[in-house]
Amino acid sequence: MKTVVMSDLYPCFCHALNKYGYNIIPAKKYTAFNKSEQQHADMQVLKIKDRVFTIEDCMKTAGEKYPENVRLNCLYLNGCLYGKLSAADTAVLDYCKNNGIKTVNVNQGYARCSTLIVAQNAAITADKSIEKALKSNGAEALLISEGNIRLEGFDYGFIGGASFTDENTVYFFGNVKKHPDYEKIKVFCDRYNSNIEILCENEPLTDIGGAVLI
Questions:
Q1: Is there a contact between 144 and 124 (Cβ–Cβ < 8 Å)?
Q2: Could you give the count of Cα atoms lying within 13 Å of 55 in the half-sphere of its Cβ?
């Protein structure tokens, strides 16, 4: 059974993903973060190849205010690490340097939250700086509209935080069919032979901080 770290604030999503054969480790409540982000896995755990970084590993102080809260909110895709490099933790940047992993700066500090990984070299985002960076480094990117994703305490959440991808399946936390760009999302996923599974169809598409496979 595979293991993921994810928020347990919405038990429905945990139970649904567990039925697909995943063991769920609840994300810790990191009280230094904003209340809405305290159990977001993509704020606390970053996996690059076989290396897992946790918030406890950070050499820089992680705090509530942006960009101190995005030390680990980086996107590893297609052999590159994307993120707001001035905010990314030193341990992460040192690891990339020592292992020949290219680092790419983007304006969006919530790089991982903002990006749904569809395949090894393909992703979906509502952030133009991420879209441009991905395409400039050999990856395919679909740009969608902002909003239409629930995130408690904020006007809206991000597509990466509302999803989890493993092998050829994209799991959405809530009903992605109600997203105005659903057809575009489906066509893009189909292009990369990625199946779409909706967890808890009666729930709105919800940014829970994604899930990190460890």
A1: yes
A2: 23
DSSP state of 88: S
User: Residue 96: how many CA atoms within 13 Å on its side-chain side?
Assistant: 25
Contact 82, 121 (CB under 8 A): no
Q: What's the CA dihedral at 74, 47, 211, 154 to 10 degrees?
A: -20
Question: CB of 53 within 8 A of CB of 89?
Answer: yes
Nearest Cα to 103, choosing from 79, 132, 124?
A: 79
pLDDT in tens, 129-174: 999 999 999 999 999 999 999 999 899 999 999 999 999 999 999 9
Round to whole Å and give the CA distance between 61 and 147.
30
CA angle 64, 55, 41 (to 5 degrees): 80
Cα 56 to chain center, whole Å?
Answer: 19
Compute the half-sphere exposure of residue 102: CA atoms within 13 Å on the CB side of its CA.
Answer: 10
Grouping H, G, I as helix, E, B as strand and the rest as coil, residue 204 is: strand
Predicted structure pTM score: 0.96
Sign of CA dihedral 131, 137, 138, 139: negative
Given the candidates 1.10.3470, 2.20.25, 3.75.10, 3.90.25, the CATH classification of the domain at 2-213 is 3.75.10
- Spatial neighbors of 132 by CB under 8 A, at least 6 apart, are none
Question: Rounded to whole angstroms, how far apart are CA atoms 21 and 24?
Answer: 10
